[in-house]
Amino acid sequence: MLKSLLTITHQEIVMTLRQAYSWITPLLFFVIVVCLFPLALGPDENTLNKVAPGIIWVGALLAIVMSIGNIFRSDAEEGHLDLLLLSAHPLTLLVLCKLISHWITHCLPLIVISPLLGILLHLNIHEESVLVISLLLGTPVFVLLGAIGSALVVGIRSHGLLLPILIMPLYIPVLIFGTGSMIAASANLPLASDFAMMGALVLISLAFAPLLTSAALRIGANQ
Fold first, then answer.
1. What is the pLDDT of residues 30-68, one digit of tens each?
2. Model-wide pTM > 0.70
3. Which sequence spans correspond to the domains of the chain?
4. Residues 86, 44: contact at Cβ < 8 Å?
5. Which residues are within 8 A (CB) of 126 and not within 5 positions of it... i.e. 6 or more apart?
6. Do residues 148 and 209 touch, judged by C-beta distance below 8 A?
7. What span, in angstroms and rounded, lies between the C-alpha atoms of 122 and 173?
């Protein structure tokens, strides 16, 4: 079972990397959004440092929302989703494999490039380390919760803004604690409470999101 799941995850990663547009587009969007703010606000170091947490986190959130609708779309269009629903493996574990591969291919590049964008916003070393840790804790929650909404609308051809409307309210706690940790880092305040809350959100999402996504897939596939 474990070997099969690792194989499935590896295949999902390889397939996504071959479709470069699917993961490069959100990455470029994230870079463009963050780079536009220094042009609009000017080069003042204090101003950019104050707004940096909001800029980076909102940019990451929007980039992930752009990609979250593609988790199950290609499977539904190619008929692979029916095979997943009829597979001998538990659907929950198959969904978890897809979510892990999606985080690796779409979120990890954002995290890797974020320190370079932090330099553009005049973040110091401590603030950049907090940024990376907070993104490592926050982006899995974005993917896990976003997958629930993506599964619900998988059977709807033109869902438009329905998916963002469904999942955006779920992202608010992560956005609050993610930006709060960076603000606390800039003020040299303790970070344990923010990281603890984000870690709790990761564990809760990991426990329930794959189950809810599996149920939502069965509902969405019948629409």
1. 999 999 988 888 878 888 888 888 899 999 999 999 888
2. yes
3. 2-221
4. no
5. 185
6. yes
7. 26
